[in-house]
Write a structure and sequence with these properties.
Elements lengths: L4 H14 L6 H11 L5 H16 L1 H7 L5 H12 L13 H9 L7 H4 L4 H7 L5 H11 L5 E5 L6 H10 L4 E3 L6 E4 L9 H4 L3 E3 L2 H10 L6 E4 L6 H9 L5 E6 L2 H14 L4 E5 L6 H4 L5 E7 L14 H4 L2 H19 L2 E11 L8 H9 L3 E4 L1 H7 L10 E3 L9 E8 L3
Parallel strand pairs: 5-6, 5-8, 6-7, 8-9
Antiparallel strand pairs: 1-3, 1-4, 2-3, 9-12, 10-12, 11-12
Helix pairs in contact: 1-3, 3-5, 4-5, 5-6, 12-13, 17-18
This protein binds S-adenosylmethionine (SAM).
S-adenosylmethionine binds next to helix 13 and strand 6.
Protein name: Putative tRNA and rRNA cytosine-C5-methylase
GO biological process, one term: RNA methylation
Family: Belongs to the class I-like SAM-binding methyltransferase superfamily. RsmB/NOP family.
Length: 415
C-alpha cells in the first residue's frame, strides 16, 4: 500500500495513545478506530500493523532511533522490520535520520533487548533457562500467533469441519496435540462463519484446549471452573462432560461472565451454572466445600505467555505486579482446593512463563499437605498425545507453536 503523510500521521497518533501503556493496546486501537470511523479497511490495517509492529520490536527500535517518539519509531519499523527503502521514505524523514537508522546494527545488544523482554523478566527466567532458550522464547513471542479453533464435539466432528473448511478453500490443518483443534494459516473472519455462529467452533489457542483434556471431567460429575471469565475453558470442559452433571462457572468479573452467556447459548450445553462471586472466599464457594469431583483454576496471571497477541502486556506488568498476582494465585488455588472431595482433581493453569506464577504456586500447595502431583506427561500419554514436557505442562511458542502456557494436575489425598 502507498504510505501517505496523513496515514503516517494517523498511525503516529494511534501509537502515541498506546505508548502510555495504561490500557490494553487492542482496546486503545478499537476506541481510536471508533473515533476515526471514516478510515477505510486498508488504512486501518496499516495503522494496526504499524502499532503492533512497533510494540513487538519496541526495545530494539527504541535503541535504533536517536530520539524515540511515536513517529521515529514507526519510521524505524518501516526501515528495519518492513525493509522499506530510504528513497521511499524521503518525504517523511530527514536523510540523517534515515541514515542513522539504516546504519544501526543489532550485534552486541543485551539479551533482554534482542529477546524483546523487559530486564526484570529476563532476570526471573535466568535461573531456570539458558540464554539461548530465553532468546528463542523471546523471538517466538515476537511473532504473531496463528488462529486456532476448537471444534465443539457436542455438535459435530473435527474431520467433518476440516473437510468443509478445506472445501471452502481455507488453509487449515489439525493441531498436533489437541484432539479438537484446527489451525488456520491465515486469519479468516471466523466469527462470521456459519460454523462459528451455530456453536460448532470456538476460537481457542491449542494450549488452552489441552486444559479440558487434563481435567478429564466425566459424565455426571460435579465440576467447577473457578476462574471462568468469558468461559473459553468452561465450554471445552462442558463438552467433555457431554452436557451432563453440573459445571459451576465462577468469576469475580461480571462483565467477563456476561460474555459467557451468548457463547453458552451457541454451544448447546445445558450443564453450566455461571455464578458471580465476590472473592475466592465467597459463601457460595464455601457452601461447596468437599463436594466437587474436579476443579479447574485458570488463574489470573501476568499473561506473559500471550505476548504474540498482546505485545504491550510486558510493559504493563512489573516485578511488583507479578508479586501481587502470585499472592492472589496462592490464595485462589487454596480456596479452590477446598471444594474437592478426597480423590478429586485440581488443575492449576496460567498463561504465564514465569516460575513464580507457575511451579512455585503448585509447590506451595503441595508443601501444605493433602495434595499429590499427578504427572501431566502420563495423562497425555494415556490419551496418545505426542507431548511430553515432564510432570508439569510447560508449553512454549518456540517449541510447540502455542502460547506460553503452564498447567499442573493435583489429586486431593486427604481432607
Ligand atoms: C486467565 S482469566 C480466565 C480465562 C477463562 N478461563 C477463559 O478460558 O476464557 C482469569 C480470570 O480470573 C478471574 N478472577 C480474578 N480473581 C478471581 C478470584 N478471586 N476468584 C475467581 N476468579 C477470579 C478474572 O476475572 C479472570 O476472568
Amino acid at each position: 500500500m502507498e504510505l501517505t503523510p496523513p496515514l503516517l500521521q494517523l498511525a503516529t497518533q494511534a501509537l502515541d495513545l498506546v505508548l502510555d501503556f495504561k490500557r490494553p493496546a487492542d482496546a486503545v486501537l478499537s476506541a481510536f478506530f471508533r473515533e476515526n470511523r471514516k478510515l477505510g479497511a486498508r488504512d486501518r490495517g496499516f495503522v494496526a500493523e504499524a502499532v503492533f509492529g512497533v510494540l513487538r520490536r519496541y526495545r530494539y527500535l527504541s535503541h535504533v532511533v536517536p530520539a524515540a517518539n511515536p513517529r521515529t519509531l514507526i519510521i524505524a519499523w518501516l526501515i528495519k522490520i518492513q525493509g522499506m527503502s530510504g528513497a521511499a521514505l524521503e518525504k517523511f524523514a530527514k536523510p540523517e535520520l534515515v541514515d542513522h537508522i539504516r546504519s544501526a546494527r543489532p550485534e552486541g545488544l543485551p539479551l533482554a533487548v534482542t529477546a524483546e523482554l523487559p530486564d526484570w523478566v529476563v532476570d526471573k527466567l535466568r535461573p531456570s533457562m539458558s540464554d539461548a532458550d530465553i532468546l528463542a522464547l523471546g523471538r517466538a513471542l515476537q511473532q504473531p500467533a496463528p488462529l486456532d479453533v476448537r471444534v465443539n464435539t457436542q455438535k459435530t466432528d473435527r474431520d467433518v469441519v476440516l473437510a468443509r473448511l478445506q472445501a471452502e478453500g481455507m488453509a487449515v490443518e489439525i493441531t498436533p496435540f489437541s484432539p479438537w483443534g484446527l489451525r488456520f494459516k491465515d486469519h479468516p473472519a471466523i466469527n462470521r462463519h456459519p460454523l462459528f455462529l451455530d456453536g460448532s467452533l470456538e476460537v481457542q489457542d491449542e494450549g488452552s484446549q489441552l486444559l479440558a483434556l487434563l481435567l478429564e471431567a466425566r459424565r455426571g460429575e460435579m465440576v467447577c471452573d473457578f476462574c471462568a471469565g468469558a468461559g473459553g475453558k468452561t465450554l471445552a470442559v462442558g463438552a467433555t462432560m457431554a452436557s451432563t452433571g453440573r459445571l459451576y462457572a465462577f468469576d469475580v468479573a461480571e462483565k467477563r461472565l456476561a460474555k459467557l452467556k451468548p457463547r453458552l447459548a451457541r454451544s448447546g450445553l445445558s450443564n453450566v451454572m455461571p455464578e458471580l462471586i465476590a472473592s475466592e472466599n465467597d459463601v457460595r464457594v464455601k457452601r461447596l466445600a468437599g463436594k466437587l469431583d474436579r476443579v479447574l483454576v485458570d488463574a489470573p496471571c501476568s499473561g506473559l505467555g500471550t505476548l504474540r497477541r498482546n505485545p504491550d502486556l510486558k510493559f504493563r506488568q512489573s516485578a511488583e505486579s507479578v508479586a501481587e498476582l502470585a499472592a492472589k494465585q496462592a490464595s485462589i488455588v487454596r480456596a479452590a482446593a477446598r471444594l474437592l472431595k478426597v480423590g478429586g482433581r485440581l488443575v492449576y493453569a496460567t498463561c504465564s512463563i514465569l516460575p513464580e506464577e507457575n511451579e512455585a504456586i503448585v509447590e506451595g500447595l503441595v508443601a501444605e499437605g493433602g495434595f499429590a502431583l499427578q504427572p501431566v506427561n502420563e495423562i497425555l500419554a494415556q490419551h496418545k498425545i505426542p507431548l511430553d514436557t515432564g510432570p508439569m505442562l510447560k508449553l512454549s511458542p518456540a517449541i510447540h507453536r502455542t502460547d506460553g502456557f503452564f498447567a499442573a494436575v493435583l489429586t486431593k489425598t486427604g481432607a
